[in-house]
Specification:
Helix content: 40-55%
Largest sheet: 5 strands, parallel
Distance between the termini: 8 Å
């Protein structure tokens, strides 16, 4: 299976990227091919709903999104990884997700297996609920299978992951694909 992991954190050594690496390790050990794209390092313009992709088959913007689309077209599963800074996915991930509009028909036909990994500094489990609801709406819209979730809270810095079990959960999620 080919798995595409979209990383939403601008912090390469942050908590969500640590969990992503654990997921990737588990998935690769299970024999899957994994491609991770660091959305924070891409140049992606926001969708302006101009409709050019619908009428011409190509987005009006010239940026890094075609490389994401190429990897998406080749994948069987999609994993969203994001810290929760302000009640939602990061802007870096959201701009990429919004641009899926330009190849929405492929997304709807493919119905990839999907998973979600979130991290939040807040001390309550509800801190990731808005992202989970957003993800559930995406699953419903696409008609995709939910492959699993890791919703880590009270993890403001990498050291706070120690002893929580979240690293093992992410690893096991990767193994379970």
């Amino acid at each position: 299976m080919k798995i595409l992991v979209l990383l939403g954190s601008p912090h390469p050594k942050g908590t969500s990227n640590i969990l992503a690496r654990k997921f990737i390790k588990g998935a690769e050990e299970a024999g899957h091919e994994v491609t991770a794209i660091d959305c924070a390092r891409l140049t992606v313009h926001p969708c302006i709903a101009c409709g050019k992709c619908e009428s011409h088959g190509v987005c009006v913007w010239t940026d890094d999104m075609p490389s994401v689309e190429k990897e998406f077209r080749a994948c069987d599963a999609l994993v969203y990884v994001t810290p929760v800074y302000y009640a939602g996915v990061t802007a870096q991930l959201k701009v990429v997700m919004d641009r899926f509009y330009s190849f929405n028909n492929v997304l709807l036909e493919k119905k990839p297996k999907m998973a979600l990994i979130t991290t939040a500094a807040e001390e309550v489990p509800s801190s990731t609920e808005a992202v989970v609801r957003f993800y559930e709406e995406m699953l419903h819209y696409v008609g995709a299978e939910d492959a699993g979730r890791v919703n880590a809270y009270n993890v403001p810095v990498p050291e706070s992951l120690r002893g929580t079990g979240y690293c093992d959960q992410a690893y096991q999620l990767g193994k379970s694909f």
